[in-house]
TrEMBL record:
InterPro entries: Phage_phiKZ_Orf197
Source organism (scientific name): Winogradskyella marincola
Transmembrane segments: 39-66, 87-109, 115-132, 172-192, 212-234
Alphabetical keyword list: Membrane, Transmembrane, Transmembrane helix
Protein name, UniProt field: DUF3307 domain-containing protein
Lineage: Bacteria, Pseudomonadati, Bacteroidota, Flavobacteriia, Flavobacteriales
Domain of life (superkingdom): Bacteria
Pfam families: DUF3307
Length: 238
């Protein structure tokens, strides 16, 4: 059951964070259940699950997970308001994970013999690496949506989406350093980033921007460390 669960989780990450353009999200929030992209989004999820599981004997499991995904997304679109978007974003993700686990457990797939030759530990590694890229960036963007720092950065010249890619690279590096047993490299990475950021922070003389960058750095590193520890503890069980 562990392998089938990991494949379903991977399909969820890919479908929700990598294969869902912003225009789909905006259209769904505007038109709610009348948005065609809501149904395209569910179809993408089902297609991903079929592709990753690669065994049509599990069609009922995949269909039930697809239905649960639609129900959770629809409920979120109906209930969420502008002020509660962050809350419903995280609630939506939690309920998706719970639904996948409960539906799979209820179907009693104790002996899964997938046709794809991939180990559970390798799949767990792929999921962790994927989660630390776009999904974590979206999670952090959602967390920071309550603060508007545009007036503190309007005069700063920066590459488009540079901050996002820097965050992704630093999380992947932290993950790699930890799973290979080099925690000291994580400390070096934090120190190096602090040195590079020191000039920016002292030149702006804006306490709010300093706090914003510090919180973002700590959350980014914290998520990478937690994911690394989860991987190290789970790989011996899956």
């Amino acid at each position: 059951m562990a392998l089938i669960l990991l494949k379903l989780f991977l399909a969820h990450i890919l479908g929700d964070f990598f294969l869902q353009p912003k225009k789909w999200v905006k259209d769904k929030e505007k038109k709610k259940l009348k948005s065609k992209w809501l149904y395209v989004h569910i179809a993408v999820h089902i297609a991903l699950m079929l592709l990753l599981v690669w065994d049509f004997s599990y069609w009922l499991l995949i269909l039930l997970v697809g239905i649960s995904h639609f129900s959770i997304d629809a409920l979120k679109l109906i209930l969420q308001k502008k002020k509660t978007k962050r809350f419903y974003f995280f609630a939506d993700q939690v309920f998706h994970v719970i639904a996948i686990f409960l539906i799979t457990a209820a179907m009693f797939y104790d002996d899964v013999a997938p046709s794809l030759s991939i180990s559970t530990s390798a799949l767990l590694l792929v999921i962790c690496l994927a989660f630390l890229t776009q999904p974590t960036s979206i999670i952090m963007k959602t967390i920071f949506s309550k603060w508007d720092i545009s007036k503190y950065t309007e005069d700063n010249e920066s590459l488009e989406d540079a901050g996002k890619y820097i965050g992704i690279l630093e999380r992947l590096l932290v993950f790699i350093f930890i799973i290979v047993g080099h925690w000291e490299a994580v400390g070096f990475l934090i120190t190096a980033k602090s040195v590079f950021r020191f000039g920016d922070l002292t030149s702006t003389k804006e306490r709010k921007l300093t706090e914003y960058i510090l919180i973002g750095t700590l959350i980014s590193f914290g998520i990478a460390i937690v994911v690394s520890l989860i991987f190290l503890n789970l790989k011996s069980y899956v």
